[in-house]
Amino acid sequence: MxxxxxxxLRVETRGIERVPEGRVLLIANHAGNTFAWDGAxxxxxxxxxxxxxxxxxxxxxxxxxxxxxxxxxxxxxxSVVGTPENCAQLLSHGEAIMVFPEGARGFVKSFRxxxxxxxxxxxxxxxxxxxxxxxxxVGIVGAEEQSPxxxxxxxxxxLFGSPAFPVTLTFPWLGLASFLPLPVKFRLHFGRPLHFExxxxxxxxxxxxxxxxxxxxxxxxxxxxxAARTSWFS
Length: 234
Known about the structure:
The protein has helices at residues 2-8, 37-48, 70-76, 84-92, 104-107, 123-131, 143-146, 154-159, 204-227; strands at residues 12-14, 24-28, 56-60, 80-81, 96-99, 135-141, 149-152, 166-168, 187-190.
């Protein structure tokens, strides 16, 4: 992963020094279609570029532990199923938690919808309020082009217990090689920590208003990342 980070995807970070010490929720936009290289590169960035180095714990979709081989890799990489209980326990130990609130909605989408933020779940905000955890918005550029999506065959995905089944330029045509991303350049732009106060059990409308602040911050960071590049590969 370090070789891919430095030499294949040539990840560039900006603002990573703003990540606060102690417990923190890293909230980012999501894409990829075949493999979460955005999450993997965020993990490596925090290990290589943050000062001091941080281990990031991922919150995975409920169906991921059912996948043969991947479930073992997921656990060994430090990720857990994204339940509120798991996340709250990790935050109580001062962990850095990576959450993609778009979930499968953001991860699997056609290329014409690239960089359009999908609906965010509200769970991360309720956890931030109940645990008084700062939220670190992160805008990721590059993951939309790593494996451009053509279609999402949801019905076929349900046969495998998955919420989606992406069809891309390479998947499923190239088999396991489909999971290798195109050698696009990744950019990770970190914003400023956001602190929220309020009742974690308040109604959805009140929580959605706070979530919208996070979405706006991520949109701005994504726009900055897009403006910084001259092509997919530079």
